[in-house]
């Protein structure tokens, strides 16, 4: 049986390696052919191996493939490779089978491969795509988070019922330091509590927090540009970090945290399985005890623990935390009124916005301390929300120029008016003096 010729891509790789000065043994290893085959093709392509510009496919085929049938087979294989790129994208669609794709392939190429050979080449092609990559993680770059699939529980003393708890798990991939916390749900309030507790535990914030497509975190999953919830946006701004999400149906994106979940099962769930707890606080106290033991346990084959690597190499690279933990803000959509203010109906107060934005729809975020106004994701106003009795909170820089002027001259006295008149001229100053002498009172107004 004649030896199967190598593919056109391998021929080109052979020429490139030869021009780079790579030896025959190494060329054979990289391309995946025998050394004798390397020598044979180098001999056939001797005229082209030293050219600066590689020859086209037709020229290479004429020299390397001396048999017409071989040339035909190579051409047929090239056609199949092009088709396989298309087939790989179609396979996941509803109703698409290999048999259907093969029939479509034969319609385009009647002299194509039989079904068994077609499936063989398709399997080989898919295997090449299905490879895993060993990930190297940078110091303090990322924290991965997820909720465990299995739950912990405590006993409600009032009813005697078991109360199931979600378990939040996080890991710093570089050092492997793990955090976990039991909470009542995956709802927003508990999610915020977990993020606050996690960052307090680590003592700093990473560049990004990678999460699965949790409903609390991701409003709209997307392989490339997921849309995050308002609470994640607020958390990002407060802790000067970012949120990112794993690709849908791509478990390898979060392999480290999935591994951490299994580690927690073995080192926390297992030791606590026979203990009973009567409150969430008591449950978490026991969880944290086991977590401390886990993080201080040396890695297999080394004298160093997760905590050691974290303290020595990673902790100092985390971003410092703000003085106060994050507190969730309420969000409302409002229209800037004609007086360049927005009204918070909750406290019946008005807060100013730059006058250029009158009539525009803005997003207002507020809590007990501050009021923030955003337009197109840019903050355009920031106010303190304290307990003063004024109905309006107005910043001078938000006013139009003529309103700023009116604000400036409020409360002017006789000397202020005479000083302004003197700037115009001597006659104006004298006239103003006479008018003020004859006036019963000074009206605290000025022309706009």
From TrEMBL:
Entry-linked PROSITE patterns: INTEGRASE
GO biological process, one term: DNA integration
Domain of life: Bacteria
Family statement: Belongs to the transposase IS21/IS408/IS1162 family.
GO terms for MF: nucleic acid binding
UniProt organism field: Chitinophaga agri
Domain Integrase catalytic residues, every copy: 132-330
Pfam families tied to this protein: Mu-transpos_C_2
Name of the protein described by the UniProt record: IS21 family transposase
């Amino acid at each position: 049986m004649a030896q199967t010729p190598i593919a056109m891509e391998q021929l080109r790789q052979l020429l490139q390696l030869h021009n780079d000065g790579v030896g025959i043994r190494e060329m054979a290893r990289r391309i995946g052919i025998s050394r004798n085959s390397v020598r044979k093709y180098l001999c056939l392509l001797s005229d082209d191996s030293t050219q600066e510009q590689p020859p086209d496919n037709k020229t290479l085929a004429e020299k390397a493939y001396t048999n017409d049938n071989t040339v035909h087979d190579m051409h047929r294989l090239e056609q199949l490779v092009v088709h396989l790129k298309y087939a790989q994208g179609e396979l996941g669609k509803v109703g698409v089978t290999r048999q259907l794709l093969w029939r479509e392939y034969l319609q385009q190429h009647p002299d194509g491969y039989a079904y068994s050979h077609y499936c063989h080449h398709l399997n080989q092609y898919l295997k090449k795509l299905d490879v895993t990559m060993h990930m190297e993680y940078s110091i303090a770059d990322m924290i991965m988070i997820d909720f465990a699939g299995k739950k912990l529980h405590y006993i409600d003393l009032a009813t005697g019922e078991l109360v199931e708890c979600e378990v939040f798990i996080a890991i710093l991939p570089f050092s492997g330091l793990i955090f976990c916390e039991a909470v009542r749900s995956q709802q927003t309030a508990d999610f915020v509590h977990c993020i606050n507790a996690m960052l307090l535990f680590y003592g700093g914030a990473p560049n990004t927090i990678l999460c699965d497509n949790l409903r609390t975190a991701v409003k709209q999953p997307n392989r490339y540009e997921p849309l995050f919830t308002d609470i994640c946006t607020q958390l990002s701004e407060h802790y000067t970090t970012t949120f990112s999400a794993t690709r849908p149906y791509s478990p390898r994106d979060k392999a480290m945290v999935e591994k951490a979940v299994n580690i927690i099962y073995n080192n926390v769930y297992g030791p606590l399985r026979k203990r009973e707890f009567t409150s969430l606080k008591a449950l978490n106290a026991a969880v944290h005890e086991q977590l401390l033991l886990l993080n201080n346990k040396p890695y297999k084959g080394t004298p160093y623990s997760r905590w050691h690597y974290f303290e020595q190499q990673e902790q100092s690279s985390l971003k410092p935390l703000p003085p106060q933990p994050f507190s969730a803000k309420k969000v409302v959509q409002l229209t800037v009124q004609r007086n360049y203010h927005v009204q918070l109906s909750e406290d019946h107060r008005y807060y100013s916005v730059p006058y250029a934005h009158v009539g525009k729809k803005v997003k207002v975020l507020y809590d007990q301390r501050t009021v923030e106004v955003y337009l197109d994701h840019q903050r355009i106003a920031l106010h303190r929300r304290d307990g003063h009795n004024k109905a309006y909170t107005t910043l001078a820089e938000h006013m139009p120029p003529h309103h700023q002027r009116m604000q400036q001259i409020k409360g002017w006295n006789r000397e202020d008016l005479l000083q302004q008149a003197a700037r115009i001229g001597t006659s104006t100053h004298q006239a103003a003096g006479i008018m003020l002498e004859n006036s019963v009172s000074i009206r605290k107004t000025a022309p706009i």
